[in-house]
Write a structure and sequence with these properties.
The protein has a two-stranded antiparallel ribbon. It is globular. By secondary structure, it is mostly helical. Helix 1 packs antiparallel against helix 2 and helix 4 packs antiparallel against helix 5. 62% of the residues lie in helices and 4% in strands. It has two domains: 51 residues, no CATH class; 59 residues.
Length: 112
């Protein structure tokens, strides 16, 4: 588990209110990078992405235009919504929600 994931777990288990946990995480850094925030603080269906030094969607964001990245997030939300009844059920709905959370976070940052 990397340092960011450890910081997330410690903050989540601290009993602090969510806003204080988020504030603490934004002050933590690893290798000069800001600590994860928003949708990057959690993962649905394991921890294989948050255990990485760079989450795949953050790498994709750096390689894509803003429009492409938002399309990627929308597409993944649609994928999980479309297959939820035949494959992943509730977990797929939560994965779709996670992609929508990230999309909202990106859109809010762009609008501010």
């Amino acid at each position: 588990m990397n340092h960011d994931a450890v910081a997330v777990q410690l903050c989540r288990s601290s009993g602090l209110p969510e806003d204080k946990t988020d504030a603490l995480l934004t002050r933590l850094t690893t290798a000069g990078r800001p600590a994860p925030s928003g949708a990057n603080l959690r993962q649905v269906g394991g921890s294989h992405y948050i255990d990485m030094g760079v989450q795949p969607w953050d790498a994709m964001r750096s390689w894509m235009s803003p429009e492409e990245f938002q399309g990627f997030l929308r597409g993944n939300a649609i994928k999980y919504l479309a297959r939820c009844e035949s494959k992943g059920g509730l977990q797929d709905l939560k994965k779709a929600q996670h992609y929508l959370e990230k999309l909202i976070q990106v859109q809010e940052a762009q609008d501010s």
